[in-house]
Design goal:
By secondary structure, this protein is of the alpha+beta class. The chain is built from 18 helices and seven strands. Helix content is 53%, strand content 8%. A hairpin with a 5-residue loop joins strand 6 and strand 7. The radius of gyration is 25 Å and the shape is globular.
Length: 446
């Protein structure tokens, strides 16, 4: 991504008239995707998403406006990339290039050398991302209102089946609208629709996250819903003894373990979790994650999601209740005996990644999502919206200090509450009304 117009020669006559229609002070972002590296079909889903967003937000009020997009096959007769590369190299001799200029130089060289096909997109610059501090002159009420508008605008996308699934402070920008009011925009919708193979339906992205995000070894992402790592911990503890070869496990032992897990708190010790993992002598280091690693995950949950620590235990108990009931239904006969496992999941003893790749784990996760959010197991519109609302809520909580108790109450108990049988739109509208009331109280007190 380059701030400014880097337009290869073959595209210039197509994009020039479009740029001429913009205000002279409009900043442009150029995005070049290497199709050789990412795959020829890698941009299909994102382009479909951007075109759909353009119909909902044609003026780019709350998203980055798409100006032009086109695939650009490699052309040996087009020397524009080589010229820009040479100019950057010359410039670097007199003035050291900054990191972004260096990255562009390396990319240009690579594209020319490897004769890459590119996908070129040009968008209106959406403003500073949220990692850039807001100006000190902006008062709290203005920020409240900007977030309120962001929620309402997200609702316009959600109702049309568009989600984000990567909503963190680098993908939300701030600037000022035509009324000189603070306004937030959403950018980078690359996860809304991801195609892995031509002719196949889009990827189930949150299911994909459970496969590739190694929460035990690589850490937690604060904008991913806390119920996801909780599910991994709960499923690991309850599925492990079922899969241990030549060991007896029955419904009575399962129920006893669940009771121990329901009593976990912030103060739960490693020794308590090791004891819960069943037979520390034979089991502490067995199967994907050792008890010590799973204890690290439990501590990581409390550290990463500390801002909502008063909600964590209720969520954990909800996770336990759903997961244990589904496991009991699938793996135990009515009289409580374990149903024989036909095959020991391949590679289960090696890593948690292999564990999350087993059908036993992923099928359980799919059922769990639907039960947790009180929707059909395959209703991705609801599941994805819940993911986004959690991400947005965590970002909104992070905006103000611990002393802003009224704001925290609104976000926690309107947007992030454990009541999931409300539609996305209803949650957003209730949060919107609560923020309006908060703004009115702030106005009256000034």
């Amino acid at each position: 991504m380059v701030l400014g117009c880097f337009i290869p020669l073959p595209l210039q006559e197509h994009i020039a008239p479009l740029l001429a229609q913009l205000d002279g002070d409009t900043q442009i972002v150029s995005i070049m995707v290497d199709l050789k590296e990412d795959g020829e079909d890698s941009m299909l889903g994102e382009i479909e998403t951007l075109l759909a967003i353009d119909k909902i937000d044609p003026e780019g009020v709350f998203t980055s406006k798409l100006i032009f997009q086109q695939k650009l096959p490699f052309d040996a007769n087009d020397s524009s990339m080589q010229i820009v590369s040479d100019n950057l190299q010359k410039q670097g001799k007199s003035n050291p290039l900054n990191p972004k200029e260096l990255k562009l130089l390396y990319r240009l060289r690579w594209w020319v050398q490897k004769q890459c096909n590119l996908y070129c997109m040009y968008m209106v610059y959406a403003g500073f991302d949220m990692e850039h501090e807001l100006p000190a002159s902006i008062n709290k009420t203005s920020v409240y209102n900007a977030y309120r508008e962001l929620l309402l605008n997200y609702s316009k996308l959600s109702v049309q089946g568009i989600c984000h699934l990567d909503m963190h402070r680098n993908n939300v920008t701030w600037g000022f609208n035509s009324k000189k009011q603070l306004a937030f925009k959403l950018i980078d919708f690359g996860y809304n629709k991801v195609y892995t193979e031509t002719g196949e339906p889009p990827m189930d992205v949150t299911k994909h996250f459970m496969r590739v995000c190694d929460v035990v070894n690589e850490g937690l992402r604060v904008f991913h819903p806390v119920e996801y790592p909780m599910f991994h911990l709960c499923a690991s503890l309850l599925l492990h003894p079922i899969f241990v070869p030549d060991r007896l496990w029955d419904k009575k032992k399962h129920d006893a373990k669940v009771e121990l897990m329901r009593m976990f708190t912030k103060q739960t010790t490693k020794a308590q979790l090791v004891a819960c993992k069943w037979g520390p002598v034979i089991y502490n280091a067995a199967l994907p994650n050792s008890a010590g690693e799973l204890f690290g995950l439990w501590r990581g949950i409390w550290d990463t999601y500390a801002i909502i620590d008063d909600l964590l235990l209720s969520k954990w108990k909800r996770v336990c209740n759903i997961v244990e009931a589904e496991i009991a239904k699938v793996y135990f006969e009515p009289r409580g005996n374990r149903i024989p496992i036909a095959h020991y999941p391949t590679g289960l003893a090696e890593t948690s990644h292999n564990f999350t790749d087993t059908s036993d784990y992923m099928d359980l996760f799919v059922v769990f999502r639907g039960k947790f959010y009180e929707c059909d197991a395959l209703d991705l519109r609801v599941i994805n919206a819940e993911f986004d609302l959690f991400s947005m809520g965590m970002m909104m909580l992070d905006e103000f200090s611990d002393t802003d108790t009224a704001w925290r109450f609104v976000i926690k108990y309107r947007l992030l509450s454990s009541t999931y049988n409300k539609t996305t739109r209803r949650k957003i509208l209730e949060t919107n009304v609560a923020i309006q009331q908060l703004c009115a109280l702030n106005f009256m007190s000034t």
